[in-house]
Amino acid sequence: MKNDMAGGATVTMTEPTPMQAAAIASGGGIWGDPAVELSTMGDQRQASRVRSMEVSQEDVKLISKKGNAIVMGCIAFSTGIASFLAGVITIAIPIMAKDLNIPENLVLWPVTVYSLACGCTLLACGSVSDVIGSRRMFLSGCFLQCFMTIACGLSKNTAQIIAFRSFSGIAASFCLPSAVSLINEVFPPGKERNITFAMMGGAQPFGFGIGMVLGGVFTGTIGWQWGFHVAAIINFFMFILAAWQLPQTPVAHKQRIWSRLATDIDWLGLILASGFLAMLSYVISALTGDLTVMRKPINIVLLVLSFVFLLAFVLWVGRQERLGRPALIPNSLWQHKGFSCICFNVFCVWAAFNAFEQYANFFFQDVQGNSPLGTALRFLPAPVSGALANVGVGLLVHRIRGDWIVVLTSIVSALASLLMAIIEPSWSYWRCAFVAQFFNPVGADGMFTVANLLITSMFPPGEQGVAGGVFNTISQTGKSVGMALTLLIAQQVTANSSYADKTSPEALMVGYRAAFWFCVALIVASLVVSVWGLRRIGKVGLKKD
Length: 545
Fold this sequence. Notes:
The chain is mostly helical. About 75% of the residues lie in helices and about 0% in strands.
């Protein structure tokens, strides 16, 4: 490391390899686990990374405590707004379908098309963010998200709401990876970075819970459109605050942008990865509306093509890595047991978390017969426990081993799904459902902070946008796959039940129980992997001297 503090001098830093960074983050030596070795990323890629670390001293802008708090809030709200709208739509979708004349086979598309558009563009947006600067990408995403939220509230038909929700998903993919990159740029390793990641994670269940409550209120009074209007107003103010307080883009990001876009991004890898995610997500989204669509030739072809793209992607990035060229997600990363296991856990925990929310909503409305507002009020414990869990994890993550946090919080979430699997519709809310709602967000929130800290430590400072894209892509894919699989299980179990009327609350409850048991199985699988694969990660989020 060379550090000349003379005015305007250049600071050149040579960053550790991904394996060394992971070892440092876990509190171990620079070589970490000797049993695991990551191959070199190549001279060209390494040189590009070192160049990305060269910033002049005048580019380093210190932010005040007040500014830090505003940045934390903007980043948290950028993820919370999306979850808020998901909560609004979850409650309001029956009324929205009537008002907008949404056909029955498309009734879930305002929800699923958002995840589809977001999931298949996260890696691309993360890569572009690393080149043009996370501030530019984040502000562009906030502005686009605000505009598209207004458009959703003004939609008059099915085509408009689906189109605007898809563009909202793309806007979210602008924000999410760049938000992760901003956290790593603005906050040094330690408590502030940990708390910001925790706030970003806590904003999701908190926003979803508040969205369901206000969505129920608006749907029963002034109209569901006001859920979008309120979100757009909040989004606009967050955009203004972010533009005011976020640090300016370093000079390094303003130079040679077009040439760096051409040479520093693995474009073919992006096309293959995005194509795989787009086709797989489309098939999964179609399944959530009608399982029989899987028999259609077009869906079979898309499913086969998606796995062809996946195989081509693996072969391509392997070639890029051998030649020392930019590789989107180097195959050598998967050789690190901690990285592979945390990705698997994120997939399983988010699949269970999202499915639990959806089927708890079905249970309260379809089985118990509660109104949308009554259902929304029953979700109120979730944002409270989510906020508490994230504050606790953010304050303690650098003091307690990461695998302990993941295991303990996952056990709590497994208990939530278990309680809903054994619940009786006649039971009081306070006897079982209240505890389940309070416990459910804990696992996802604990996993969010630990996973982000671990995954970002695997990528060099110049590729934190890609790191954010990796995490959010895995979590979004987990949500989609989890919802599709639980739907398949619930429908098949209900269809094979002994009840003559398959739409009766009793018949539906049989399928819902099976869905909750599947959520338990997903979290137990992640627990087994955590105990086996994460026991050597140590503490994450440690302050570096």
